[in-house]
């Protein structure tokens, strides 16, 4: 079994592994980052630290997923977190045709399909090189 946190961005539905989600927050406390690179929405206070928040699935800013990446925690702005699901069946292979392997699998639910996203692939976008 696989447990995922599902979210919506625009009309599309995605998921990330639940064990990689540290917290879900409302996007109301975002602080703009001056001279931010493309795809960087801003910063989110986290205790005495600041977490970089990215936007890559449209401009949805209702929720922020705080994700534990390979090297650091970062935020992903999404329109809406829709739930936590336990998937009994196997995760199907990712679709062909991606420039980079962001979507690593497909999950069929009673409501349709979710694209399973690779948290580390998202986190690599923070690396300026």
Structure description:
The chain is built from one helix and eleven strands. It is mainly beta. The protein has a six-stranded mixed beta sheet with strand order 8-1-2-11-10-9. A hairpin with a 2-residue loop joins strand 1 and strand 2 (12-17). The longest helix has 5 residues, at 119-123.
Key phrases:
129 residues; mainly beta; five-stranded mixed beta sheet; 11 strands
Show unreliable segments: none
Distance between the termini: 36 Å
Work out the radius of gyration: 14 Å
Number of extended strands: 11
- How are helices and strands ordered from N to C? EEEEEEEEEEEH
Order of the strands making up the biggest sheet: 8-1-2-11-10-9
Strand content: over 45%
Helix content: under 10%
Number of helices: 1
Structural class call reads mainly beta
Calculate the mean pLDDT score and round it. Answer: 90
Itemize the secondary structure elements and their pairings.
Blueprint: E1 2-9, E2 12-17, E3 21-26, E4 40-46, E5 49-54, E6 63-68, E7 73-78, E8 80-87, E9 92-93, E10 103-109, E11 112-117, H1 119-123
Parallel strand pairs: 2-11, 5-7
Antiparallel strand pairs: 1-2, 1-8, 3-6, 4-5, 6-7, 9-10, 10-11
Summarize the structure.
The protein is built from 1 helix and 11 strands, in the order E-E-E-E-E-E-E-E-E-E-E-H. It has 129 residues and is mainly β. The strands form 2 sheets. A 6-stranded mixed β-sheet has the order 8-1-2-11-10-9.
């Amino acid at each position: 079994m696989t447990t995922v946190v599902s979210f919506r961005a625009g009309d599309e539905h995605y998921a990330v592994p639940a064990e990689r989600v540290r917290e879900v927050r409302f996007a109301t406390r975002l602080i703009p980052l001056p001279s931010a690179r493309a795809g960087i929405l801003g910063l989110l206070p986290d205790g005495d630290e600041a977490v970089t928040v990215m936007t890559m699935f449209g401009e949805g800013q209702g929720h922020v997923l705080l994700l534990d990446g390979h090297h650091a925690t970062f935020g992903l702005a999404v329109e809406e977190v829709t739930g936590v699901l336990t998937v009994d069946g196997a995760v199907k292979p990712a679709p062909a045709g991606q420039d980079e392997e962001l979507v690593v699998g497909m999950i069929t639910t009673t409501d349709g399909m979710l694209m399973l996203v690779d948290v580390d692939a998202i986190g690599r976008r923070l690396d300026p090189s």
